[in-house]
Write a structure and sequence with these properties.
This protein is mostly helical and 107 residues long. The protein has one domain (5-106). Helices cover 75% and strands 0% of the residues. Helix 1 (5-15) packs across helix 4 (77-92) and helix 1 (5-15) crosses helix 5. The longest helix has 23 residues, at 19-41.
Length: 107
């Protein structure tokens, strides 16, 4: 059982070790947030749940088809949601590959 966010982050990185998985998360999250902003800006706020559907569809596809593992969202929803944004920030700043290597050395 994972007890700290630090432990979870290492688990999360391990579960997102393939570049295609991370790319699909980035696409899904970006599209989902774009939809959310669009729905709010156009007064169609009642469609906001679709942003979750779009975001998670890409991520879950990546887990089931690319990584062949179970999404961390099922067991750790809040930490997983936070980590999606942390991972994207690391990707955009070129640090995610280093994180994957760091975690894989521990295994």
């Amino acid at each position: 059982m994972i007890k700290t966010y630090s432990e979870f982050w290492d688990f999360y990185v391990q579960e997102h070790s393939k570049p295609l998985t991370r790319l699909l998360h980035l696409i899904g999250t970006t599209l989902g947030i774009s939809l959310l902003i669009y729905f709010i800006a156009t007064g169609r706020w009642y469609f906001f749940p679709l942003f979750f559907v779009v975001g998670y569809a890409f991520a879950w596809f990546a887990h089931f088809v690319v990584e062949k593992n179970r999404p961390a969202t099922f067991k750790y929803p809040l930490w997983s949601f936070i980590s999606d944004f942390k991972m994207i920030a690391y990707m955009l700043t070129g640090q995610m590959g280093r994180e994957v290597q760091r975690v894989q050395k521990r295994i």
